[in-house]
Design goal:
By secondary structure, this protein is mostly helical. The chain is built from eleven helices and no strands. The protein is elongated.
């Protein structure tokens, strides 16, 4: 279960970063953000994959970034520092908080990622990306990796807002599975299945987890 969790979660997160950049840049332009932040976002999107090639081969094509040129000679640390400075000066800058959270997630720094998503939730308490990101980061911070308490509440709220959130459905199913609610886990993952490319590795991993949940659900409980 643990191996599958990390593989599928990593795949989803890698794709999520690519999908997140374009709306972040567009939203920032509408809000009058400086071009420096756009350059920082693109630079991080390029540099972070280089730091973890195995995961980042799953990221979408750079062409989707709309031709925005990355900042020259910028390191990941410098990009993060620029984002930190931006959110310190503008605590309501949701796109920068989200990008910071995604960056720390990809760098496998869940404590920092959770803090960034917390900042995003202060900027917009109903932002689905922030809700799901906080829940996932929190599970990685915990020694037992359980998804419960505030994490589960955030996932349920996220799905109430966006019922087709793939990451929320995946993580909520994991929460059910962790707590031996196998029928509920299977039902949740079956909602996720139609949203996935049936030929993808993610879809195959989810199908295996559904089969496992169904198998365990069918077993009689011991008294």
């Amino acid at each position: 279960m643990t191996v599958v969790f990390y593989l599928v979660a990593a795949a989803m997160l890698a794709v999520a970063l690519a999908l997140l950049l374009v709306p972040l840049v567009r939203h920032g332009r509408r809000q009058g953000r400086s071009r420096g932040i756009f350059a920082t976002a693109v630079a991080i999107a390029v540099l972070v994959p280089l730091a973890s090639v195995g995961t980042y081969l799953l990221v979408g094509r750079p062409a989707t970034l709309g031709g925005v040129a990355p900042a020259e000679d910028m390191t990941v640390d410098q990009g993060i520092a620029a984002l930190r400075a931006q959110v310190k000066a503008h605590p309501d800058d949701l796109p920068s908080w989200l990008l910071l959270g995604q960056t720390f997630t990809m760098l496998k720094q869940p404590v920092e990622a959770r803090a960034a998503y917390d900042g995003a939730l202060h900027a917009d308490a109903r932002n689905v990306v922030a809700m799901v990101g906080w829940a996932e980061s929190d599970s990685l911070v915990r020694d037992d990796h359980l998804i419960e308490g505030r994490s589960r509440e955030l996932l349920e709220s996220a799905l109430a807002i966006e019922p087709t959130s793939q990451r929320a459905l995946w993580l909520l199913g994991i929460s059910d599975f962790q707590h031996q609610r196998y029928a509920e886990a299977s039902a949740t993952w079956k909602k996720l299945q139609p949203l996935l490319d049936p030929d993808s590795n993610v879809a195959r991993a989810v199908a295996k987890q559904i089969a496992l949940a169904d198998e365990r659900s069918a077993k009689p409980t011991s008294n």
